[in-house]
């Protein structure tokens, strides 16, 4: 069974850093594109970042480019999102999600999300 | 990376059909057949219901269908059921090799 479990969220001051983790099971990260998507409280979904199956290509939303870094550890089958220079507007539930295994550009599995709150 | 445009809300009675539109530009919706739709119930993670404009994942009811014309994609739900009441989001791949979501549409089943 495919499972994605995020961790690492919490309260951080503006300008601070946080690293989110997403432990994958039931499939191999190295064979899947992976995404981070966030949702501010009461707001809509916002795509944040993506890494390809080989780990050789990453892309970011303009709002986080230069501040966030997506990466993964094949040995731990874990996806990461390093978030630096955090701002109040980064406050959201962060979901990790798997690119559709059937090869479409959709996302077929989502984690339960981890809440990041940026506040002084 | 402006969000795709969706109506804020739509409604329909049980058994009826509704359609949610998603308007973008030639840099996203109009440029690729890579539009997906997600259903999200309150407090839950999103669920993929349509990918690549019209492809329905295994396990998704055939009451859900997708289409696209020019820069506008559409999700149609036929035979509305109470459990269809949720937020729906469209998503598209873009010329910048990024993805962009729509603002979301709240579906109310009357």
Characterise this structure.
The complex is a heterodimer of chains A (120) and B (110). Chain A starts with a strand and ends with a strand. Chain A has strands at 3-7, 10-12, 18-25, 34-39, 45-51, 58-60, 68-73, 78-83, 92-99, 107-110, 114-118. Chain A is mainly beta. Chain A is globular and about 40 Å long. In chain A, strands 2, 4, 5, 6, 9, 10 and 11 form a seven-stranded mixed beta sheet that branches. Chain B is mainly β and 110 residues long. In chain B, strands 1, 3, 4, 7, 8 and 9 form a six-stranded mixed beta sheet that branches. Chain B has a three-stranded antiparallel beta sheet with strand order 2-6-5, with no helix packed on it. Chain B starts with 8 loop residues before the first strand and ends with a strand. The chains are: A mainly beta (120), B mainly beta (110).
Q: Number of DSSP helices of chain B?
A: 0
The biggest beta sheet of chain A reads:
7 strands, mixed
State the helical fraction of chain A: under 10%
What can be said about the biggest beta sheet of chain B? 6 strands, mixed
Number of strands of chain B: 9
Count of DSSP strands of chain A: 11
H/E element sequence of chain B:
EEEEEEEEE
Task: Output mean pLDDT of chain B.
Answer: 96
* Fraction of residues in β-strands of chain A: over 45%
Low-confidence stretches of chain A: none
Average per-residue pLDDT of chain A, rounded, comes to 95
**Outline of chain B, from the CA principal axes?**
globular
Largest interface: A-B, 25 and 29 residues
Number of helices of chain A: 0
